[in-house]
From TrEMBL:
Name used for this protein in its record: Saccharopine dehydrogenase NADP-binding domain-containing protein
Domain Saccharopine dehydrogenase NADP binding: 4-121
Pfam families: Sacchrp_dh_NADP
InterPro entries named in the record: NAD(P)-bd_dom_sf (IPR036291), Sacchrp_dh_NADP-bd (IPR005097)
Domain of life: Bacteria
Species, as recorded: Saccharopolyspora oryzae
Amino acid sequence: MSWMIYGASGYTGRLVADLAIDRGERPVLAGRAPAKIAEVATPRGLPYRSFDLADPEAVDEGLAGIDVVAHCAGPFSATSAAMVEGCLRAGAHYLDITGEIDVFESVFANHERARSAGVVLLPGAGFDVVPTDCLAAMVAAELPTATHLDLAFQTSGGISGGTLKSALEGAALGGRARIDGEVREVPMAWRRREVLFPSGSRRVTSLPWGDVSTAYRSTGIANITTFAHLPGLDRAGRRSSRLSRALLSSSAVQRLGKAAISAVVSGPGKSARSRSWVEVYAEATDDAGRSVSAALIGPDTYDLTADSVLRAVNALQSEQPAPGAHTPSTAFGPDFVRRLHGIRIIEPARS
C-alpha cells in the first residue's frame, strides 16, 4: 500500500511522519511548498511530492499511485474540500484530523459519491474525534432508547498553531449543538454542568466540537451537546461571548490573528507531551430518566492523534470498511479507541 501525509511540514504532520518511521512505514510526504516538504522528507529518507490544492490537475498528478491520504493540512475549512475531490477522482481513501463541524458536514455530504467511487472518507481520525466518538457509540449501545448525549473533555497539554487557527475560525461561528436532529446555533457557554472525569469531578462548559456532527451519525441520538473544562471559558458569560464572536468575525482580525499564531506558536515539545494527558466523558440519557455514562483517560492529544492516524491508515487497508463517509466508530467499531496506546476505559455504567 502506498499512502501519503499531506501537510507533512506542519506540526502534526511531522509527528505522524516520525511515528510512521518508528513503526517501519515509509509514507510519501507532501505539501504545497517544495522547500518545506524537502526539509522534512530528505533527512528522514522519505519520498516526497509538492502540489497546491488549488490546482486540480496538480492534485491529480500528486495523488497518482496513492491508496490512502492522511490529510493534516489545516485549517480544514480551507483545504478539506479540494483534497476530498482529489481523492474521489483518484480512488484514494481520505482521512483527516479536523474538529470543525462544518468540515464534517461537508465531507459527510459526499457519502453517495464516495460509495460510487469505492472510497472511504474518514474525517476526524485524531483526537478530533476518535475518543469522544467511540465513547459516544459505547454508551449509545448500552441505552438504545437514549434521546440526549453529553460529551466532555479536559486536557493538560499545549496546542499547535494549526489547532489555534482552526479554533480562531470556530470561535467566530459561536456555539453550536445538535437539537432535535439538526445542527443549530446556540449561545457560547449556553450550558454548564458537573462531570465525573477519571481524575475527579469538574465543572464543564458547552462549546462547539466536532461530535455535534459526528456523534449523530454514530449513535442516531438527536440531541447532543459538547463540553470542555476550560477555566477561562467557565468564567465567560453569554454577553462576553457575543462580543468576542462579533470581534472575531472580522476578516481583518482573523487575518492578523492567524499571522500572529504563525509567528509565535510552534506546538508542545516531546517532553511537554510526555507529561500531558486527556480525559473524556460521555453520558446518554432517555426520556424515562435512565442514563449510561463512561469515561476514558489517554495520553497527550497530539501523540494520540499520530497513533490514531497510523492505525486508521492500516485499518483502511486490512479491514476494508464499506465505501462511503464514516465516523471512526462506524468505520472500525466503538472499540477502535481501545487499540490506541495508553488508553484506559472506565466501562459504561447505568444510573
